[in-house]
Fold this protein.
Amino acid sequence: MAVEGNSVALPQFLKKIELIKQGAEARVYRGSFLGKPTIVKERFPKLYRHPLLDEKLTHRRTVQEVRSILRCRKAGISAPVVYFVDYTSHCIFLEDIVGSITVRDHIAFTQLSSAQKIPEERLDQLAKKMGQILAKMHDEDVVHGDLTTSNMLLKAGTESGETELVLIDFGLSYISALPEDKGVDMYVLEKAFLSTHPNTEALFEKLLKAYAASSKKSHAVIKKLDEVRLRGRKRSMVG
Ligand code: AMP
């Protein structure tokens, strides 16, 4: 089905494709657009918010998501291609990374299937790659805002045979040069990583080591990360 340049055709189009996720802020669909496997992210109105404020916030998030993806892609960081954006219905049409799995599932499967071996060793290369890509993203002043192992996809490489790491879900991202913002970004990832994947402290350290080695600006970010960790610890001691 074609999506024409009017706001009537889009809701009809969305009804005909598969809903894969209903979130608090957005619905995610999977379908075909202009013959290509496509993911559609639709930000719907939040009725508890004042309509004007809601419209403004939703518009801003859509713009920020597209801007961050484009900025990453321009710098050679893998993120889905943006096919089409509709600012009336707040829909983003993105390349569907076909045949990919989330880093979360990959780590979980590797940990399960390597009970005899030390799983970290098998995941070393992945941790290194994650650290390098995140350093590159931060060097572009893109702060992701929701770094988790579910928001990174692994795609089997076509020519090189190497797997590609693709960053997704830039819905909470923004542009900032501040080491504090980047430090918090890494702290969010650390919390998510260690709570999702047990016994991976050493693996996460490798990620941070690769991050530090890949960026000239990383020193200030790691310093901020240490400060944020300390703040977090103090808060949990107070209760
Ligand atoms: P999101 O709300 O953007 O995190 O998307 C929800 C889920 O849809 C993700 O956890 C992925 O499994 C999947 N997904 C989102 N974007 C893509 C994409 N571009 N290609 C393939 N799968 C995706």
Remarks:
- Helices lie at 9-15, 51-74, 103-113, 119-139, 179-196, 201-214, 218-238.
- The first helix runs from residue 9 to 15.
- The beta strands are 18-22, 26-33, 36-43, 82-86, 91-95, 101-102, 142-143, 152-156, 163-167, 174-175.
